[in-house]
Write the structure tokens for this entry.
Amino acid sequence: MERKLRALDLTLVGMFVALMAIGANITSFVPFMVVGGVPITLQTFFAILAGAILGSRLGSIAMTVYMLVGLVGVPVFAKFGAGPSTIFSPTFGFIISYIFTAFIIGKIVEKKKSVTVYIIAAVIGMGVNYVFGTNWMYLAYKLWFTAPEGFTYKMAWLWMVVPLPKDIILAALAGIMAHRLERTVLSKGQFKNLKRVS
């Protein structure tokens, strides 16, 4: 039977919604996080942490709330985007993918809590983010958005090569960080049973 959301759960969901909003626009607050013209956004990083720290249920709820908050008009998406029209954006698939990313990572780490499992789960979650988001982007350009000249499926994936090394490193760091928190903070007190209800 599903348990109701506690005050602590709601607080953590709200915290991760805020972190996702900051991560989406980190270069607006910290301009030096642009390397070679490529912005180092932290949305995937925080989505991974949401699943690894909060678990499958609460992590996916947090990412769903983040998406809904943006869709109702709060500027929490990249470039402070918001509103229902963002559904038609070529990059909206990445926002949807954060829900699956958090859920899958949570399911994996709920079964075993070694640092290796956390890192593997984080990389798998990142892969889910890339596959879902890139395919959405390709379909968006082909079906309802104006595609660049000569746009192909291969080109869509080539675009993802640029942020890939950054995201792999951040995914591994997120896994390590979540494992450390599990060993210290999350295994004690009110946090003890936070992630174990699916």
